[in-house]
Structure formats: structure tokens, C-alpha cells
Design brief:
- With 363 residues, the chain is an alpha/beta fold.
- The protein has two domains: 127 residues, 2,3-Dihydroxybiphenyl 1,2-Dioxygenase, domain 1 (Roll), CATH 3.10.180.10; 184 residues, Rossmann fold (3-Layer(aba) Sandwich), CATH 3.40.50.300.
- The chain has eleven helices and eleven strands.
- Helix 2 crosses helix 11.
- The longest helix has 20 residues.
Length: 363
């Protein structure tokens, strides 16, 4: 006789006393969840089993067959975690991983040792390739596929797996009352940049004010306005040397604050062409560096810029020219956030999400 189908999620482990988890006090720090199990409805059961067990190599741990042809196989998928992402983070990952094509509401991410090789093997085994393998800004190789049973899969290979995972630095509200930070670890340097009219000054100030840690807001405009004689408008070709000196000064200041344990938000027109001094300065004091480019459409940037006060840059031709300089960031393209349809609060939320998650960390 075939055994009655069993709900594997209801089985107790041999070393677990029934009801033991119920004794844990609500809110206690004890880990109450023992296992994450993804239950998949596989209409083509044999194809799914051949793919996930045989091609992908998930070892079969348990098997149950029941009346009426009922079958279930439990496969070992390694360590399980639950990743919760807000809309801004989901949109960012979709841009990095799949050229902006939206992901499913539930997506299965599997860590493998060789992302490109396993991707090729799974495509040969029948998976549909949705996005080819590529290196991400956070040092992993990711690809996206559609597997049997309709599951959207991300394969990821951690390129720095031998190194301990970095502890996120900056924007941590739990550190608000900790005054020992200055003696223990440097703060983070967060560059919020973009063309004129992108809202970087407003957003940068709010990021610093709401960080929950000691934080400093460095406005590049303030450094330029410190030049009382011989100043050249920064967007002019003749300002190149002046701009290099200003950026070097900002980099030194940011590094000094960060070395003292302060998070530092730098806002201004800091294109990739000006990043090297800031990268070197942050690296010199061991400060994490995050680079975030706010990039609304050109028309929106012009609309916002021309609505500003008279002392701000409002010349449409200049605004469009600056926007064009941020149109193609090359290897840093994943560091761009499309803020065309975001107001200030939603932009702040998006920046916090990518900084907290380390998605735009450079060094």
C-alpha cells in the first residue's frame, strides 16, 4: 500500500520536541524559524525534478508518494534566507540584473560556485535565459533565467566569497546614541550627485539629517563660493584646474570627517571624471564609499532647475549640457537612479535603500 501523503512542513525534526517553539517569548532574540521551504506547484513534475535535482544538482533529501499519484520530493538547496526588498531596491536590481525588465513578485535566487558555467548548463537543460551573466557593482556574477514550473531564477556567484561580508556602514539608526564610533571605525562617504535640477542638494541634506548617526553634509557649492577672487563658473572649460583643486579639497575634508567617525554626505556635480580623488581619500582612511547618481529626464531636470531661485543655475542650455555629461556613465551606469517620477521623499527613500543595501558601494 502507498503511504498517505504527508505535509513535510508539518513534520518535526527528530531532535525537536513538539511545541518547543511555542515556549519562546514573543519578541525574544531566539531564532524561531528553523527552515525556509519553498513549496512549488510543478504541473510537469518529471521535467521539474530532472531540472532542479539532476541538472542543477539539488540533492534529494526526502520523497513521499501517496494515493492518486500524489508525489513530493524535497531537495536540498543549501542555506535558506528570506530577502525583503522595497520597490526602489527591486527596481535597482532589475536595472542591474536584467536591463530594467521587471522581476516576478517572488524570485528564487540561488548561489553557485561558477555563475556563468552553471547558467550555460541550465540553459542547455531547458531553462529560458532572461538575462545573461554579468558582474554587479557589489562584486557578484548574476544571471536571470526562467526554469520549469514557471520559477524565475537568479543565479549568483559571490566573487569575494573568501572574504568576510562587510558590515553595512552608515544610515544605522541603532547607532544614534553611540559616541564611541569615532574611536572604533570610520564613517561612510556617500556621494549624491547628478545634473543640475536633479535635487541632489535637497536629498543630500535630508540623508545627512536623517542618518541616525553623527553625520556631515558637504555641499560642493559651498567650496566653490569660498573662492572670493578669481573664481570661474565651474561649467566653463577654463575652470578645469579650479575644479580639480575644489574636488581635492572636498575629498580631503570628507576623509577627515569620516576618519573621525562621521558619515559624510557629499552633494554636487561629481561625475566619474572627478571620482578618483574621493576614492583615494576614502580608501586612505578605510571609509566605505557609496556613489549615487540622481538622473531625471532632461526635460524634468530643466523644469526643476528653471523653477529654482535666481542665484541657482537656471540656464536651460547649460542644464541640458550637464545632463548630457551624466547620460552615459559607462561602467558606473548601475549607479544611476532614474528620479523622473520621484518626489523628494521617495528619492530619499530610494537613496537610503541602495546605501543601506550596499548596492552602490565603490570602495
Amino acid at each position: 500500500m502507498e503511504p498517505t501523503p504527508v505535509n513535510p512542513a508539518e513534520q518535526h525534526r527528530d531532535d525537536e520536541a513538539p511545541g518547543a517553539a511555542d515556549a519562546v517569548e514573543p519578541g525574544a532574540s531566539v531564532q524561531r524559524v528553523r527552515q525556509l521551504r519553498l513549496v512549488v506547484h510543478a504541473a510537469d513534475f518529471e521535467r521539474a525534478l530532472a531540472f532542479y535535482r539532476d541538472a542543477l544538482g539539488m540533492a534529494e533529501q526526502e520523497a513521499y508518494d501517496g494515493d492518486g499519484g500524489a508525489m513530493v520530493r524535497i531537495l536540498d538547496a543549501g542555506r535558506a534566507t528570506l530577502e525583503l526588498s522595497n520597490p526602489a531596491q527591486v527596481a535597482f536590481i532589475d536595472r542591474v540584473e536584467a536591463e530594467g525588465r521587471p522581476s516576478d513578485r517572488l524570485r528564487v535566487a540561488l548561489e553557485v560556485d561558477d555563475g556563468r558555467a552553471v547558467t550555460a548548463e541550465l540553459v542547455a537543460a531547458g531553462a529560458e535565459l532572461e538575462a545573461e551573466s554579468r558582474e554587479t557593482p557589489w562584486r557578484s556574477v548574476n544571471s536571470r533565467l526562467r526554469g520549469p514550473a514557471g520559477l524565475q531564477l537568479t543565479l549568483f556567484q559571490e566573487l569575494d566569497a573568501a572574504e568576510p561580508a562587510p558590515v553595512p556602514t552608515g544610515l544605522d539608526p541603532t547607532d544614534a546614541d553611540d559616541t564611541s564610533h569615532a574611536r572604533n571605525a570610520p564613517g561612510a562617504v556617500i556621494v549624491v550627485t547628478g545634473p543640475s535640477g536633479s535635487g541632489k542638494s535637497t536629498v543630500g541634506a535630508l540623508i545627512a539629517e536623517r542618518s541616525g548617526r553623527p553625520a556631515v553634509h558637504l555641499e560642493t557649492d559651498g567650496f566653490y563660493s569660498a573662492i572670493r577672487s578669481g573664481a570661474v563658473a565651474p561649467h566653463l572649460p577654463a575652470a578645469q584646474r579650479q575644479n580639480e583643486v575644489v574636488i581635492a579639497t572636498i575629498a580631503a575634508s570628507a576623509a577627515s570627517w569620516a576618519a573621525g567617525g562621521y558619515d559624510v554626505v557629499v552633494d554636487g556635480v561629481v561625475g566619474p571624471w572627478f571620482l578618483a580623488p574621493i576614492v583615494d581619500a576614502a580608501r586612505g582612511v578605510g571609509a566605505p564609499l557609496h556613489y549615487v547618481v540622481l538622473r531625471p529626464s532632461a526635460d524634468v531636470a530643466v523644469e526643476r532647475a528653471t523653477a529654482r531661485s535666481a542665484d541657482a543655475l537656471r540656464d536651460e542650455a547649460v542644464v541640458r549640457d550637464l545632463h548630457g555629461q551624466f547620460a552615459d556613465l559607462g561602467a558606473l551606469e548601475p549607479h544611476a537612479l532614474d528620479t523622473t517620477h520621484l518626489d523628494v521623499e521617495r528619492t530619499v527613500e530610494a537613496v537610503r535603500a541602495v546605501v543601506d543595501g550596499g548596492a552602490m558601494r565603490l570602495a
